[in-house]
Amino acid sequence: MVAGGLGVGKTTAVQSISEIATINTDNWMTESGRPLDALADGQGKTTTTVAMDFGRITLESDLVLYLFGTPGQPRFWTIWEDLCRGASAALVLADARRLETSFPAIDYFERDADIPFAVAVNRFDDVLAHPVERIRAALELPEHVPLTTVDARSRSSVARALITTVGHSLRQAVLASGGDASGAGR
């Protein structure tokens, strides 16, 4: 899963990395929905995901990821549970300029979803507003949750974030089975 708040780069990330034509459910924002969906910094977002984005990437010959991007608005969060069913891990995208939009997704994966997750801070315009460790503290993110940066427009950057997420998921699976996870997912 690729999750996060409105306008953090989920659709862009899925489109950047997918080796197939992506399926998305973006619709034009309506005037009646604009007060609910507007970005505080006036980024001029004109479309929004109302169900999901879907893509696929082969990381290794025996490791294919099916990517489901979640809608970012609270009124569409009811679909998250369905998208989580069968998921191995989640990558939560965050925008350092609007960290508060990340709290609901992080809370969901910490409390309600039974899957490992990592957080990637999207570098809009290749700028990171704050150092990563300050972002970790602001998000109150536990040390065991991987935190990295990403440029959602860059295939290689998204690949690195997904590899971090998959590695974390593999380590968590080994730990859950009572094994030694020190070399898992590297």
Automatic annotation (TrEMBL):
UniProt name for this protein: ATP-binding protein
Signal sequence interval, chain numbering: none
Q: Which Pfam families match?
A: ATP_bind_1
Entry's Gene Ontology molecular function annotations: GTP binding; hydrolase activity
Q: Which organism is it from?
A: Actinomadura rubteroloni
> Would the keyword Hydrolase turn up in this protein's UniProt record?
yes
Supply the SUPFAM superfamilies for this chain: P-loop containing nucleoside triphosphate hydrolases (SSF52540)
UniProt entry keywords in alphabetical sequence = GTP-binding, Hydrolase, Nucleotide-binding
The family assignment reads: Belongs to the GPN-loop GTPase family.
Has keyword GTP-binding?
yes
Q: Which InterPro entries match?
A: Gliding_Motility_GTPase (IPR052705), Gpn (IPR004130), P-loop_NTPase (IPR027417)
